[in-house]
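Quick check before the chapter quiz. The format below is the same one you will see on the exam, so make sure you can read both the input and the output lines.
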Amino acid sequence: MALYEGIALIQEKQAVVLDLGTDYTKFGFTGEAAPRCIIRSEFWCATERRFKRVYDYKTPDELYENLVHMLHRLYFRHVLVNPKERKVVVVESLLTPTLFRETLAKVLFTHYEVSGVVWADSPRLCALTLGTPVALIVSIGARDAEVAAVVHASVVLHALQSQPLAARAIHDELARLLDEDNGQQLNLPDHIIEDIKVKTCFVGSRERAQQWADGEPPSPARSVQYPVAGRTAITVSGRTRELAAEPLFARDNELASLPDIVLQCIMQCPIDARRALAENILITGGTATMPGLKARLAHELRYLVTQPPYSTRVMVRTFKFHRAPAHENACAWAGGALGGAADSAGGRATARDQYARRRRLRDWVCLLDNTPPDHPHRL
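Here is the expected output.
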């Protein structure tokens, strides 16, 4: 046997990267440019005879079973590898519930017996793909929109912002507008509403949105007919196509719109990093692919910084957006694949024997992990 063949046999195998989202899951190997599969976060439940979402659970035991079935589908149907032979890079949100993290660790270490797991937060992974020391990550997922500032590989935790302004909010508004267009309660399933959003909807300019709000509608876009098997075609008016995404930009007394939380995140960051954050914005998530979203967000930001309370506190007038090096809905996964390939030795991974001794994970919200050893509270 040649020497290089022997070295290849003892080399560490590629780790797998798991990005378990609310609606879609990305799964693949480190060092690759794209996931091997992007599938819905659901599995066939034999007991209930239906497809069940991973996040539909009421008890920890039910969540454990959901994760076991979901990971079995990923490992043995889509990538066809032995879980015991490869480490795992888990891409997670900073706001992931502790119960979900602990249960996922239990499934990986005890059920599938993986050798090690790297827990990586999505904001820093997204910033890793850009190669910039300072970045503002705007993640628009299925349920929530999260804005995180990454400054020199550290997330400014006290500036982290989150609001329920994401795909679900657009779907609810789109379903309401479709009922108005067709004069009846359509009760469309989620996958049809999502397909209508992806194929027909767009984000209009701020001037046109203001005209719609003032009761002086501009000339609408063309209406389209969306065919549905077993029923008459659904009418999607130009007004519906344009206004479906308006919940993201609707302001109220709490200043909780998408542009507001972006500016609030910048405002709560160190003053010497605000200009760099405003000039290095990256929008990720499936909703980020809606036509016109980035242009509308940039216009809203330029307008709001001239209005109180931001006009006297955010002395920034220029906003620049990065073009994601990967597809917007897989940007965090790409960062996990890049970071996992760079850490091929697994120095950042939590080993299975280490987890077996403590049976818990380090978490930034836990006082046991972020209190100094000599602090009086330790006593």
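If your answer matched, good. The first strand starts at residue 16 and ends at 20.
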